[in-house]
Write a structure and sequence with these properties.
The protein is of the alpha+beta class. The chain has nine helices and 24 strands.
Length: 532
Amino acid sequence: MSLSTVPKSASTELKIGTKKHYLKSIFYAVPNIIVFLMLAGTIYVGHHTGWKLPKFSELTGNSIAAISDWCTDHLVPESQCIECKSDLLPKDKEFGFCKEHGVAECVTHHPELAQVNGEPKLPKYDTVQAVQAITRTENSNRDTLHTKRVQFTTAESVLKSGIEVDLVGEGTVTETITTNGELIFDPNRVALLSSKIPGTVAAVLKNIGDRVSTGDLLALVDASQVGSLKSELLKNIVQIRLQKDNVERLSPLTLTGAISKRELLEAETALQEAEVALLSTRQFLSNLGFEVPEITDADTPKELAEKLQYLGIPQSIVTTLPPQARSGNLIPIFAPFDGVVLTSDVVLGTVVDASRSLFTVCDPSKIWIMLNVRQEDARYVREGQQVQFLSDNGDQKVDGVISWISPAIDLRTRTLKVRAEVENPDRQLRDKTFGTGKIVLREEPNAVLVPQEAVQSTAESQYVFVRDKNYFDDNAPKMFHVRQVRLGAKNGRNVEILAGVLPDEVVVTKGSNVLLAHLLRSNLGAGCCAEH
């Protein structure tokens, strides 16, 4: 059928359907065309701008141009950034690394760097000597963080950041070496007492805890050998008298020829032998602790026997002894010095000898502090240094002075033995007390101190942040200087600064870690605004 034969109404419907199809195709193609145009625009702009994003102010106009005035590295307005625009606030003159103090830009040697209004106050002690007193953590002379400054937009922004500051002050610090130690009695004032010969305990006069004085009688031991020696002594005395009379009788007879000189010589020899025997017996008794009295020719044998019966035992003690204990065989045991009976292992009737200790007597008025110093700390120890000792339970505390240092390192513990002697008049210090000893290397009443939280560290150096002296001036940058510091002793919540700050400077305490993090962040970047 030809078109001419198609009805007019059907032809009109065909044209309308075809037009709708074209419109629908165009409608679905529009998103693809838009995406293509955006990609083309991006390529064009990137090619002509070196693929750099334009600033927000360039896209939105001058109404928010302030947003573009921002240093992304130092987080302050770019127009105020003293790190990027050094002409706004030139840095102080650089003096380099101080080898004596171990810090860069040493404020001690160059007080003009101090951030104080008025005359800077220098430390009142030799900080170089203090630095050298002990091995300390060192700063790197290649580190450059101290050349940076940390800046805030306003004083209010400092407060909102949680930053707190404190004044560099002065106070007392004590630098010590910490060691393990022990309190012991002076070994020269401790005695283990026993009977020098075998016997049986006849009397006990002192017990554990009793205080004694030099020469006090502690116990009596019945030893048959003592009685034998006393008898031998009497025999020797009688024999000497006999031989002396014999010599005196024979001497005139020799002159008249009534007897031969040989007989006189034999009599003199017998006298000498008797004298030797007497000296030997006296010496034996002295070795047992007896003090044999002087013997005169006027003493009768009976009188001599009475003198020797209770030899060395005070008469006041003899009268208190029971009858069965009153014999001539008694050997006394005396206290060798003033002190106290520490132990007593003796009862009546106990069989004893020289191998068995009966009493331990000690003089607790003097105590030794024995310290075990680590081998690496041994080089710092000197005689005359102060020692502070605190027992493990904290109830015994004492100070002393080093009087002896061992010339050798202990092979087993690899420590150095050090001794300090102290008085113990009230006897409160106890033998065999373990604790901690501190050897005082130096004590400084005018140390430069800052709170410990003010100090921050990196792998290379230690720092504090010092507030600029013009901080409160109008239009002055709100900034903090970065200072390398050398640490000394600690004192509670404070730490000594041997170099790096001066008294009356102001340092950041709380929030100093935030400043360090910001400093390290900016140091990792280009160190300059994006525009530069």
